[in-house]
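Changelog entry

Holo records now carry the ligand SMILES as an explicit input line rather than a separate metadata file. Below, a converted record for zinc ion, shown in the new format.
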Amino acid sequence: MQKRCTRCGNEMEIVLRNVVYRKRVKIMNVPVQVCVDEDCDHSQVVDVIKDDLKSLMEELGQHPQRQAIEFEEMSELSNLLVLIANEKVNSTVRELLGEKVNELLDLFLLAQSLGDEKWMLELRERLTKIMV
Ligand SMILES: [Zn+2]
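Structure line, unchanged by the conversion:
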């Protein structure tokens, strides 16, 4: 149950992107799902980290100071995805982690579509503990 692009139906892959908030704050390494179709190029923030991102933006407020924030320092899931993207980590470990993360993200989407908040919370916790 890989996430499909809502525009063209192609597969989406997770990449790390920099997001600019209110033109002043650069938030680095935000996990984003991007459509594999280059012409479509549709992207959206990974569902499971939306809450983390939202609370960061609330903290920054409407008139933030010019700054750069490393998102992985406040989001364990982002931290995990940075680790997977980091080529210094052994490729077998990366693959295993990547598979596990995808599996949990799929379950998260399912829990979300069912509106099962308890399950969503549980999956978020499992995701953040994956690397320990
Ligand atoms: Zn697409």
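Spot-checked after migration. The beta strands are 12-21, 25-35, 43-45, 67-70. The longest strand covers residues 25-35.
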